[in-house]
What does this fold into?
Amino acid sequence: MRQALRVARTGAWLALILAAQLNAAPAIAGPFSRLQVLLPGETAAPGTSSGKAGSPSAQTAGIPFNVTVNACDASWNLDNTITHTIRILSSDASASLPAAAQLSSGTGQFLVILNAGGTFTIQAHDQSDVTIPDGTSSPVRSIVLQSLEFSTTPRAQTAGTPFSTTITARDPNGDTVVATFHGTEPKPGEGHGDGDDDHDKDGKGHGLQSAKVRPNPLNPQTELSFTLSREGRVRVKIYDMQGRLVKTLLDDFRPVGTQTLTWDGSNASSQHVASGVYFLRIESPEGAVIRRVAVVK
It folds into this structure.
């Protein structure tokens, strides 16, 4: 009788241990059956009805942003064996879209530029297997900025002493489209640069928002400088107007302080790029900013 009880207890413990291990084990993806499109502000949430969490962040017309495409099973689990070629489409007929590219380990990032104002969706089309239905993103708002209004501030200021101002962004109808902020430093990731120092006209910017590209246009090379207030991994990538990756300038750990990089106008194959406008995207633990640089030959 005692022996039987010991065997029963042992069996019960083994069952509990096995159940815990099964619950802790990562989900195994089923057959690849759908494409997931994630926008900035969204994260993957396998096993949920929508497969994602969060809500899309509003985008600024004419400014590129990353779209993530995942190959998933019916429960939105990532299938990391898929390397199909994906084409990106948009309900914004004027959008600048990237060239078709292969997924890597079931996922890929694509740079998209919405050029019109309104609410649009992004679609992912599988060119390798036409039986896979197109993935469609959540609706995302694209905002056209017409002007920036600055509140009145006293002209006389004391060097080294912070002061407050209000910047209001308005669309072509005069409506406010971006919440105002106060102080000398925008929040990380708030706003996108358009040129070498659009957010730093007086040279007193802080963090990534102080990023400068000079000379601009590039002649025969240009220097990108920015300041990190937090150490961490930094990526600096260059994209063309079609959203195609031209070159990765930096993908490394960087300390706090001023960072300086040089671009000579070459691509990843060390060939000189064609004349045109290019986007330098800086990503760090503080957020991300984009600067434009022109190449003129």
User: Anything to note?
Assistant: Residues 34-142 form a domain with the Immunoglobulin-like fold (CATH 2.60.40.10). Helices lie at 2-24. The chain is about 10% helix and 40% strand. Residues 178-206 have pLDDT under 50 and may be disordered.
